[in-house]
Every structure is written in structure tokens, then in C-alpha cells.
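Sample intake sheet
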Amino acid sequence: MTQDTAEINKSVLATAIKFEEDGRELYLDCMNRTEHPWGKSLFQSLADDELKHVARLKETFDKLAIADEYTQGPAPLAAEKQWKNIFEEARGTAETSIKAGTGDVEALNLGMAFEEKGINYYTKLSEESANPLEKKFYDIIAKEEQRHYLILKDAHELLTDPSSWYEKTEKIGLDGA
């Protein structure tokens, strides 16, 4: 790796680290804005995921190379069970009646906008990289950001259109089947 390439990689990784740290702060702030306990749990989980991204990026930054171990096996995403538990809890709460406060919806909107920026940023890095390991590494992080976006979108739908959310999550058809 040439000095110029190392400096570019270092700059890109420093920007990515800052982006993830900002994301963690955003999710901790969103956790404080939301009123629902399951919403607090959701934002805490997203903040924890951002911390994992920071750790991987910092390790990569220290080595100035994308480690092969980060591109092998399944993407290191949050445990699927954790997300299912959050939405199961939401389902139980919502059945009695969910009234979304302004802070809840605003927090979800902020999170979705942030994740869209992350998806675009990491997708661009993946597309621009000439190194196959870097491409795959950034692609994995972009997919994690996409997953976060979908989780936030699902929570947004739960709060703003609970009947559609129930129809989708319960897989209830209009014919009752």
C-alpha cells in the first residue's frame, strides 16, 4: 500500500468512525426522546450496534487494512432474537392502544434519515474501492445500515399506522385467511 493510499484509507476510516460515533449519540438521544419502553429498547440496541461498527472501523484504522475476517461468514449483525423480542413487546403494548408522541415519531424519522446517509456513504465507498476486501467490508456495513433503516421503518409504521403493521406482521389477509 502506498503512502497516498494509506492516507486516503485513514481519512475514509476516520470519517466512517466519526459517522458511527455520531449515530450512537443520535440513537442515545432518540432513546431519551421516545416514551415507549420498547422504543427505548430499540434505540439502545441501535446505539449498541453503532458501537460495534466503531470498534471494527477502529481496528481497521489501526491496521490500515481491511481484515479478511471481517468479510467472512455471516455479517456481524445484532442478534435476530433481540429485534424479534422488541417487536413482540411492542405488539403486546400496541394491542391495548398505541398513541405515538411527537418525540417517538420524530426520533424514528431522525434515525431513518441517518441510516439513509449511512447506506449511501458506505455504498459509495464500496463502489469506489479498488480493493476487493475493502469493497466487501463497506458493503457489509452498508447492509447493516439498511437493516437498521428497515427496523426503524417498521417501528415507524407500528406507531403511525398500527392496523397496517398488524396486518403485515400477523400476515392477515383481507379475506381473513
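Comment: The chain has one domain: 3-170. Confidence is low (pLDDT under 50) at residues 74-88, 90-99.
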